[in-house]
Every structure is written in C-alpha cells, then in structure tokens.
Amino acid sequence: MPERPKSTSTLIPYGEPISLDRAKAVMEAAEAEAAREGWPVVIAIVDSGANLVMMHRMDQAQLGSIEIARLKAETALRFRRPTKAFEERLAEGGVSLRILAMPGVAPLEGGLPLVRDGAIVGAIGVSGVQSHEDAQIARAGLVVLV
Questions:
Q1: By CB distance 3.0 to 4.6 Å, which of 113, 128, 131, 143 could disulfide with 65?
Q2: Are the C-beta atoms of residues 30 and 136 closer than 8 Å to each other?
Q3: What pLDDT score was predicted for residue 1?
Q4: What is the set of domains in the chain, with CATH numbers?
C-alpha cells in the first residue's frame, strides 16, 4: 500500500473546487507540453469533489485513455497523492499486490493532485503515452497553480 502519513495533521486538506478558468489554464499548460513532445494524450481534470471539470482528447489519442485519464485524476484526488505512489508499491509485489483489489484505483503514474494555497482543489490525470511521459505532461499543468 502507498505509504500513509503518520497522522491526519500531515494531510493536505481538500479545498474549494478548482474554478473553470483555473482548470482551463492547467489544461492549456498540459496540452502545450504534450503538443511540444508530439504525444497524443487524454487529459482529465477533476475538482476537489472528484467531479469532472474538463477533459480533452487530443487528435489520435487512443480511445482507451479516456477512462484511464479520468481514473488517474480521481485516484490522485481521493488518496491525496500522486498515482506514482501506487505504481511503486505495486512493483514491490508481496502484500502490496492488494492494491489490485482496491476498486477505482489507477496504480499508474500520471495522476497528480492540484494544490493551491495549501489545499487540494482538484487533480489532473493524463493517459496515452508511457506513464512517466503522462506524468511529465501532468506536471506541466501544475505550473499555473503557483
């Protein structure tokens, strides 16, 4: 299982839902990174209540990535951590394989919480290329939250 914080006081709190304007800015920054690399992906952004705010499927992005991108965003939001944490634990095998029994969890890198002013306002999920490349695109979207 992904490492848990030692106490609830270390958890990043959920905040107000990301606004549509802010989500658009995150999406534009992520899309620009994908376009610069020539990677056809799907990008999903959910708000702090796990509601889909927006999703873009770039030209020629594989259809299977539609659900995966959203699931990555929801996983990052619900568990307040990058989905890479699940991928790393799963790779350890053994007891960590129980992650596979957790409903609605995407143990694939490419989902990140969106944090603004110390609170989680939403999450971004990217799917369509290698998981580390999906994460590169997602990270590019974070720069507008500063």
A1: 128
A2: no
A3: 53
A4: 16-145 (3.30.450.150)
Mind giving me the DSSP string for the chain? -PPPPSSGGGSPPB-SPPPHHHHHHHHHHHHHHHHHHT---EEEEEETTS-EEEEEE-TT--TTHHHHHHHHHHHHHHHTS-THHHHHHHHH-GGGGGGGGSTT---SS-EEEEEETTEEEEEEEEESS-HHHHHHHHHHHHGGG-
* pTM score over 0.85: yes
Residues 6+ away with beta carbon under 8 Å from 12: 80, 113, 115, 118, 119, 120
Mean pLDDT, residues 52-57 taken together = 98
pLDDT number for residue 9: 53
Dihedral pair phi/psi, residue 27, rounded to 5°: -60, -45
Vertex 27: Cα angle to 23 and 33 (nearest 5): 150
Q: Of 85, 94, 84, give the one whose Cα is nearest residue 136.
A: 84
Token couple for 31? 């899309």
